[in-house]
Design brief:
alpha/beta; 8 helices; 5-stranded parallel β-sheet
Length: 209
């Protein structure tokens, strides 16, 4: 969740504590429990293995528009993306779609996104699924802003999605496909071909798990 350009001697992590009930006992995820509850800040040595994701990087040109879809902890790399781009005085064509359960408790890096938005360096669309009667997810916000999403794609934007592979990433892809048909006036097959070309050109990039 951090760029080495801004933080050369640090690695920032966004970690959600995993827990579940087994009978009457609460059990925790091994890594998330260690990082949240066991490791002492600046004391515990934490061995790291760096696995590069060379396919999931920002465009060479910092002026290229980017659309970032990162619900939950999937938003982490986009903080690094923006730190990198803004360090290089990138333009203002940055758009983030973020979603979680509740805005009051789950708006990760709220101050950072809000600050950038107020400076007109970032467009932010939010989907907090449990803050209203009907569940609201990032794919719904994409469809709601479909006309502008299509305009950005036609202007050369790179589209990123990070987080759960199923169902989130599939639902996001379906939403983009629908946007291509609705606002690009493409047939079902031509919209699929458009998405395929975006992937081929490395303009639709996913880091999902």
């Amino acid at each position: 969740a951090s760029s080495p350009v801004l933080h050369p001697n640090e690695i920032h992590l966004l970690v959600a504590l995993t827990s579940f009930h087994h009978g009457e006992e609460i059990r925790y995820g091994v890594a998330s429990h260690f990082l949240n509850h066991r490791a002492d800040v600046n004391i515990t040595d934490i061995p790291c293995y760096v696995q590069p994701t060379s396919h999931f990087t920002i465009p060479e040109s910092h002026e290229t528009p980017i659309i970032m879809v990162g619900p939950g902890t999937g938003v982490a790399p986009f903080r690094a993306f923006l730190q990198e781009r803004l360090h290089h005085h990138a333009g203002c064509k940055n758009w983030l779609f973020f979603g979680e359960r509740n805005q009051k408790t789950d708006f990760f890096y709220e101050e950072y996104w809000t600050s950038l938005s107020l400076q007109n360096k970032l467009t932010v669309d939010l989907a907090f699924s449990r803050d209203q009667a009907d569940k609201l997810y990032v794919q719904h916000k994409l469809l709601e802003k479909g006309k502008d999403v299509w305009a950005w794609l036609e202007a050369g934007a790179h589209f990123y999605v990070c987080g759960d592979a199923d169902p989130m990433a599939k639902e996001v892809e379906s939403a983009v496909h629908q946007i291509c048909m609705t606002h690009g006036n493409l047939s079902h097959d031509n919209a699929k071909a458009y998405l395929k070309k975006l992937r081929h050109d490395k303009r639709y990039l996913a880091d999902v798990y």
